[in-house]
């Protein structure tokens, strides 16, 4: 059934009614609202963009600048959260299917380009647009009333840029169902680390000359990448103490990537449909399971400090993946024999999770790493063989 669009009715104190006239988003002309005006409105009033309805992680966004120059072209609006999560907004006309696909392709190009940047790159380009001295990102966040630690913010921002952890918002006033299907297409065919929202922003002219804006989210597709490094008893996975004090973290990231490259080089899983991640510059790898919106996965992790490796069945809270994992845990005895090993359920970071670990010793040693890799590969294969089909079946039943 097609969505019905009706104008708001303004009821005055004397009971008279006025049907408000919706302005059209065009290149200009009487009774219209241009793309430039939409950009300016989003920049001046970021709270009117329904960000958290698309992805609740992107809270308290602050407008940074308009027309940010990139190699892929200028970004209409850039916003950033105090936690270092970037938001890209594209305000476009909606005329035909070809134009709509171009808009989606354009915003994806922006995301790909920003994923090559560091926080310093973004700081430099924003400074060119805002003429603010020092670090304009921190300046704008603090002016908006947020207390931001510079080092933590820059680290988080660089990490999110590198991982492509963005919120992409396409804003228009004439989005219809044909365009909404694009979100579903992206979710089914692209495993990118972003959230996409299609936002319709009807603007109505009020009798006093002001405007009524009624934004609404028409579609969203969330690629969940908020993976928690999870190990027993709520401990955090740590690297060497010297690494934590090292200002140049690039060497640590490179070492971790080499570690996982070595692990993946001889990984052979029985399940041919299990996606294999690329070597990460992190202390863990995530093997996604068949739950909607990437909401359930197996973390394969290492703990350099304590000389141990392990696996954890993780999930995103509030999504169907969480329900699927809890269903598995409720009947864990039925699969323990098939999983083998020393699989347990424990409270990790406030969540009940299935995990398994092995203490191997100094992971800097080639012999120890070889032993750790052999164990991890065998256990991961067993976990995938047992858990993947069950997660798929549970999800199908729930849907």
Automatic annotation (TrEMBL):
GO MF annotations, alphabetized: nucleic acid binding
Protein name: DUF4268 domain-containing protein
Organism: Qipengyuania soli
């Amino acid at each position: 059934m097609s969505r019905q669009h009706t104008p708001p009715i303004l009821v005055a104190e004397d009971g008279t009614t006025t049907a408000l006239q919706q302005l059209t988003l065009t290149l200009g002309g009487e009774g219209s609202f241009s793309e430039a005006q939409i950009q300016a409105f989003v920049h001046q009033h970021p709270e009117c963009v329904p960000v958290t309805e698309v992805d609740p992680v992107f809270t308290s966004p602050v407008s940074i600048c308009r027309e940010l120059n990139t190699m892929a072209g200028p970004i209409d609006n850039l916003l950033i959260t105090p936690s270092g999560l970037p938001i890209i907004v594209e305000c476009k006309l909606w005329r035909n299917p070809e134009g709509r696909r171009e808009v989606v392709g354009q915003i994806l190009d922006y995301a790909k380009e920003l994923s090559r940047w560091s926080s310093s790159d973004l700081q430099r380009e924003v400074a060119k647009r805002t003429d603010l001295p020092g670090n304009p990102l921190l300046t704008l966040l603090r002016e908006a009333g947020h207390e931001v630690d510079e080092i933590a913010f820059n680290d988080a921002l660089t990490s999110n840029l590198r991982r492509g952890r963005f919120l992409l918002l396409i804003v228009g006033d004439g989005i219809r169902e044909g365009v909404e299907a694009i979100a579903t297409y992206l979710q089914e065919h692209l495993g990118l680390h972003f959230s996409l929202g299609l936002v319709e922003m009807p603007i109505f002219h009020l009798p006093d000359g002001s405007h009524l804006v009624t934004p609404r989210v028409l579609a969203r597709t969330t690629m969940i990448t908020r993976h928690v490094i999870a190990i027993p008893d709520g401990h955090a996975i740590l690297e060497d103490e010297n690494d934590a004090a090292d200002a140049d973290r690039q060497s640590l990231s490179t070492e971790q990537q080499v570690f996982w490259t070595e692990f993946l080089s001889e990984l052979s899983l029985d399940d041919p449909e299990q996606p294999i991640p690329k070597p990460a510059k992190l202390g863990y790898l995530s093997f996604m399971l068949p739950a909607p919106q990437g909401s359930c996965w197996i973390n394969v992790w290492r703990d350099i400090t304590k000389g141990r490796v392990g696996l954890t069945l993780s999930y995103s809270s509030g999504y169907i993946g969480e329900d699927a994992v809890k269903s598995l845990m409720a009947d864990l005895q039925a699969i323990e024999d098939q999983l083998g090993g020393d699989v347990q359920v424990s409270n990790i970071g406030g969540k009940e999770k299935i995990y398994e670990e092995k203490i191997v010793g100094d992971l800097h040693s080639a012999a120890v790493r070889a032993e750790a890799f052999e164990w991890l590969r065998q256990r991961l294969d067993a976990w995938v063989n047992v858990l993947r089909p069950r997660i798929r079946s549970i999800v199908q039943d729930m849907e």
